[in-house]
Write a structure and sequence with these properties.
With 59 residues, the protein is of the alpha+beta class. The protein has one helix and three strands. 20% of the residues lie in helices and 36% in strands. It has a three-stranded mixed sheet, with no helix packed on it.
Length: 59
């Protein structure tokens, strides 16, 4: 499977200030592929982490 198989991506950001950097990296990785996307700004349990990603892929 490749990123082209991604159907849905949910990103949990620890802080709104990482929104633009996350969008840039996401574009670098996914290119023109546009799976359904949800970005949630939330407190993450481990403060050492800036984000968590949940992804669903279909073959």
């Amino acid at each position: 499977m490749t990123v082209r198989n991604l159907a849905k991506v949910t990103v949990f950001l620890s802080d709104r200030r990482y929104r633009e950097a996350n969008a840039q990296v996401r574009h670098e990785v996914l290119g023109d592929h546009g799976p359904a996307l949800t970005v949630i700004i939330t407190g993450i349990y481990d403060e050492a982490r800036l984000l968590e990603i949940e992804a669903v892929a279909a073959a």
